[in-house]
Design a protein that fits this description.
Blueprint: H1 2-22, E1 32-34, E2 49-55, H2 58-66, E3 71-79, H3 88-92, E4 99-106, H4 113-122, E5 131-132, E6 135-136, E7 142-146, H5 149-165, E8 175-178, E9 183-184, H6 192-195, H7 200-213, E10 217-219
Parallel strand pairs: 1-10, 7-8
Antiparallel strand pairs: 2-4, 2-7, 3-4, 3-9, 5-6
Helix pairs in contact: 2-7, 4-5
């Protein structure tokens, strides 16, 4: 009798754990879709706009912009530090003062800079100081790096607009800082959500964001079975 009960409890626990791990895949309204692993244009057309923002882990920010109409490329990297160089291990230590950012090139005929900012604020919590969800440290701060005075004014105006709207319960702590040198992140960070579908961190942090935005979860196409055409 006891042995049967133990087997049942073990089965129930395994089922629960499996459901919890896979739950984000079954979020209502969060469908999966096979997408290109590298959606960035190889060459950015002349006249394209550029925006650089940080809103927590760049894996998540990057994928949000990859699924934004008018975005030509979204590249993960580092900006805003005092050190003369940046790589993941040094930035993760919090000592270089860099933030994890995504540099976005976009078609201004399709999406305006103000709409890029809308997407940015829709996809993270700008009231969290030096953190975003489970990620803590100044490298995860909410920040907009402006590339000219027009962008600076647009960013400041957007923050005032959001503060006055009461959309967020707390004070908005997003920094508005002049763009500095951009250090592209290591290859394994680029297109991370496309390269690593089902990753535990993505399931917990990114997939709920995608559900909120009403866009699909990226998955890889299944390899063709041996002998199939």
């Amino acid at each position: 009798m006891k042995a049967g009960l133990y087997v049942f409890l073990a089965f129930a626990l395994a089922t629960f754990i499996g459901w919890r791990l896979m739950q984000p895949y079954f979020l209502t309204g969060a469908e999966t879709e096979v997408m290109p692993v590298d959606p960035d244009l190889a060459e950015i057309p002349e006249g394209s706009g550029v925006a650089t923002v940080g809103g927590g882990c760049f894996w998540c920010v990057e994928e949000v912009f990859h699924q934004t109409d008018g975005v030509l490329s979204a590249v993960s990297g580092y900006m805003g530090g005092s050190a003369g160089d940046a790589d993941y291990s040094r930035v993760a230590s919090g000592r270089t003062e860099h933030a994890e950012v995504v540099q976005v090139h976009f078609d201004p005929e399709v999406i305006a800079y103000s709409e890029v900012l809308d997407r940015f604020f829709e996809s993270h919590d700008p009231t969290q100081l030096d953190r975003q969800g489970p990620d803590k440290g100044p490298q995860y701060r909410s920040v907009i790096f402006y590339h000219d005075d027009v962008q600076k004014l647009a960013a400041e105006s957007k923050i005032r607009e959001l503060a006055e709207s009461g959309e967020f319960r707390g004070d908005i702590v997003t920094e508005v800082v002049e763009a500095m040198e951009f250090y592209e992140a290591e290859d394994y960070h680029q297109n991370y959500a496309r390269e690593n579908p089902g990753n535990g961190y993505l399931r917990a942090v990114l997939y709920p964001k995608l559900k909120k935005l009403g866009v699909p979860i990226p998955v890889k196409d299944k390899p063709a079975a041996e002998g199939s055409e």
